Amino acid sequence: MTKTRFLLPKENKDAYQKIAELDQIGKSGSISEQLQELIKIYASQLNGCVFCIDMHSKDALAKGEKMQRIIGLTAWEEAAFYTVQERAVLAFTKEVTLIHQGGVSDQTYQELQKYYSEKEIGELLVLIGTINFYNRIGVTTLLQPKVD
């Protein structure tokens, strides 16, 4: 069984608090809580962060998200149960998360602009960036969720 290496909030409380403050800024924007959770789950799946996948899946369920849509995130491009707006956000999430694979394409950005203002796109970018930061902490430290 994998064991957590160390807990960043314990070992570097100040740095972790700053990340949490950035996370709070993302949460307080205009993006719906359900979409925020879909972003966090999907980015965490792409990054392989089991702790964040577990936590945000449970949070999404608690906020009324459907199990089918949570499970379907790994194949959202083939699934019919995401709106065009959600698809634009998931494509953006993928390209920001996997930025080393060619950046964010003009096509993806232009699709996002059909549904979101520049302020909202900025909010999405903060949400995606913050979960990616948390994912890097979770993957590096082998952070494990509690077994249900």
UniProtKB/TrEMBL annotation:
Pfam families, alphabetically? CMD
What are the record keywords, sorted?
Oxidoreductase, Peroxidase
State the Gene3D superfamilies in the record: AhpD-like (1.20.1290.10)
The terms under GO molecular function for this entry are: peroxiredoxin activity
Specify the Carboxymuconolactone decarboxylase-like domain's residue ranges. Answer: 17-95
* Name of this chain's protein: Alkylhydroperoxidase AhpD family core domain-containing protein
Q: State the species of origin.
A: Enterococcus moraviensis ATCC BAA-383
For this protein's source organism, the top of the classification is: Bacteria, Bacillati, Bacillota, Bacilli, Lactobacillales
